[in-house]
Design brief:
Elements (H helix, E strand, L loop, with lengths): L4 E4 L8 E7 L3 H9 L9 E7 L5 E10 L10 E7 L2 H13 L3 E2 L4 H8 L5 H11 L4 H11 L2 H25 L9 H25 L2 H4 L2 E6 L5 H9 L17 E7 L2 E7 L9 H16 L2 E7 L6 H13 L4 E7 L18 E2 L7 H15 L9 H23 L2 H16 L8 H11 L4
Parallel strand pairs: 1-6, 7-9, 7-10, 10-11, 11-12
Antiparallel strand pairs: 1-2, 2-5, 3-4, 4-5, 8-9
Helix pairs in contact: 4-5, 6-7, 6-14, 6-15, 7-13, 13-14
Length: 447
């Protein structure tokens, strides 16, 4: 008998409607106690009064009963749609707990849906990520995953790997059977195709990770290059202190802003230079860390000052990360006499900024880069867990090729079993009885 769980399903705060949910064997009985009603028709909205344990009226609410297994959790579920605000919803929740329910743990409704077979792990993760989606593109991708896009990929890979393992098992245990001579070459070709597909998906997922978690944009440059002014211009309000004194920004400043369809995190960093000041030195170290963690780097160079060692440091950072991050280079203070030798950064196509600029050109450049990063039809792995699982499967497939060519089929099977286990962990554990089904189904043994 499952414990009956309850929780407020809507965010805290003032709103027109709040939702409280019950799930478990006693859900219907508890709903009857709270309402004084003797029955509820499944999947029908019933307008009724709700009463606290002392019989005092809490609210008039809509109650919907979902009879097992036709519910999200596959258990009996009752949903109370009451007037918004925290007080009413909390009073209903406390009443449900008084009548025998317990407070649900974080994610427990979705966990029960998984245990009940309503969803697999890919759909569960997509639900969690959809709540936190930072862009319209992310919401579209996650909606596709909730409909089984990633599950279909996992099942296809698992099916093909199981067939390869079945071949090996047949060859080991039924060597007297006639098997096609070109099977080894065909298997190698299929394994190469799978590995390349996985490699492409992992690379694309790592590059587009910001779609789910939110892209991070770091503004870097030497002290007094105009980084804080640029941040303020992009945000359109005075978020950072602007001063002619070098080193005013001693720590990273972070703000969220929507650009196009994306919610991004802008990071204004401390000026990068050599410093004996301990606090400023810590700020500079955090600036370098911000670059490492960012998806896009905006490098700002002061056109009104000659090129110096500090500019050289910035350029070295750009060269270090240019293969893995999007780089936007801008020249500040171009309305003043230009003293900077820009020959070393011309390859980056620097954007020329003036004091009167409102950041529009940088925003346009950001939107263009974000759209390019978000684009692509490749499947997107939405968590570190999924990426690592595909990476492990890819490595195991690569390790299986040499034993296959050498005829060491036990070792070949060992590596492919690792690959199957890894990729299956994305959605659900594999049943290795499937190998037997493949063995006898594909090769028609026992004629």
């Amino acid at each position: 008998m499952n414990e009956t769980i309850a929780a407020v399903a809507t965010a805290s705060g003032i709103g027109s409607v709040a939702i409280v949910r019950l799930s478990g064997d006693e859900a219907l009985a508890i709903a009857k106690r709270c309402t004084g009603r003797s029955s509820f028709l499944p999947r029908h909205a019933t307008l009724t009064n709700l009463y606290d344990p002392e019989g005092e009226l809490i609210d008039e609410a809509i109650v919907i009963y979902f009879k097992a297994p036709h519910s999200f959790t596959t258990e009996d579920v009752v949903e109370f749609q009451c007037h918004g605000g925290s007080i009413v919803a909390e009073k209903i929740l406390h009443t449900l707990l008084h009548h025998g329910a317990r407070l649900a743990e974080p994610g427990e409704f979705t966990k029960r849906a998984f245990i009940g077979g309503r969803i697999d792990l890919t759909e569960a993760e997509a639900i969690a990520k959809l709540i936190e989606a930072r862009s319209e593109d992310a919401a579209k991708i996650l909606a596709r995953q909730m409909k089984g896009e990633l599950k279909a990929f996992v099942e296809d890979v698992r099916e093909r790997l199981l067939r390869a393992v079945a071949f090996a098992e047949v060859t080991i245990d039924y060597a007297e059977e006639d098997l096609p001579d070109d099977l080894v070459d065909d298997l190698l070709s299929q394994l190469d195709e799978l590995r390349e597909r996985m490699d492409r998906i992992v690379s694309s997922s790592e590059r587009r990770r910001g779609l789910i978690e939110g892209f991070r944009v770091a503004i870097v440059g030497k002290p007094n290059a105009g980084k804080s002014s640029l941040l303020n211009a992009i945000l359109d309000y005075e978020r950072a202190i602007v001063s002619p004194v070098a080193g005013t920004t001693r720590d990273t400043i972070e703000e969220q802003i929507r650009i196009g369809t994306h919610l991004i995190r802008m990071i204004d960093t401390a000026g990068i230079r050599r410093s004996a000041d301990m606090i400023e030195k810590i700020g500079i170290e955090r600036s370098v860390a911000a670059i490492e963690q960012s998806d896009i780097v905006i490098a700002l160079f002061d056109a009104s000052r000659p090129w110096d060692e500090e500019d050289e440091q910035i350029l070295a950072l750009l060269r270090r990360y240019q293969e893995e991050k999007e780089i936007i280079v801008a020249l500040s203070k171009t309305d003043l006499p230009q003293l900077l030798d820009t020959s070393k950064i011309e390859a980056y196509g620097p954007i020329r900024l003036q004091k009167s600029d409102r950041g529009d050109r940088i925003v346009e450049a950001l939107e263009e880069r974000l759209s390019a990063m978000a684009g692509g039809d490749d499947l997107l792995l939405i968590s570190t867990r999924q990426i690592e699982a595909v990476r492990r499967a890819k490595e195991a497939i690569e390790q299986a090729k040499a034993p296959l060519v050498a005829g060491e089929l036990e070792i070949f099977t060992f590596h492919l079993t690792d690959a199957i286990t890894a990729v299956s962990s994305i959605s659900k554990p594999v049943d290795f009885n499937d190998i037997m089904d493949k063995m006898f189904g594909e090769f028609c043994l026992g004629k």
